[in-house]
Specification:
The protein has 4 helices and 8 strands, in the order αββββββββααα. The chain is α+β, with helices and mostly antiparallel strands. A hairpin with a 2-residue loop joins strand 3 and strand 4. It is rod-shaped, with a radius of gyration of 62 Å.
Amino acid sequence: MSISPRSARTSRSIGVAFASAALVLGVAGNAMACSIKDFSAVAECDGDKGVIRVTDVDPLGVKAEVTVYLENNGADLRMVGSRTIVDSTAKGVTVTFDEEWEPNAEYRIHVEAEDYVDEDLPILVAPADACTVEAITPPAAAKAPNDEKTDKGKDTDKGTGKEAGEDEGEPSRTKTSPTPSASEGTVPAGSNGDNAPSPEGDSNLAETGGDSNTGTIAGAAAALVALGAGAVYYSMRRRGASTR
């Protein structure tokens, strides 16, 4: 049975359409499949600690194993760690590796995602500046009452000449106490506190107001008085004799 030219053209058209659809589906499938381009990595700071974060934006949610290595001159120095990413989304799923990286350190990141990916990301280079935390000045501690008193004493010392740290109420070590006056009722040294005369021969200016020569002077005065009285008596007798 022969096929008419019209039927042949129709069959070719249908075949081309199916082929085109298959090609489009194939390209779309390849575009949606998991690939190394779905992964990215960065070294950054989390406070004062260094971390490495790897993000997967595969919309199919293919399970992937991520392993990080520290590099040294193109060779693996040590393995930092390994993490598994499950059920990734187009918005991205991130895994974090704690790593105290040094400035400009290099890391190799290997990704395995079932039958889709088994290769490395481009070498990751850490930032040139290490992670630091700004210093926080603690609030000034409240001074205790004794501290305030000490500080006040130090300020006063500048004008009074007291030793540093001496309290205001404490007298100076070199300062002498004032001597009480006689009007305050202080008993002179050597007195027994009453008005009894001192033993004979003792000198006490507080009682007599004299010194050890007082007896001699008194005797001389008595002799002069007696001599004067005798002279008066003798003069009166001569005058009486002359009048007779």
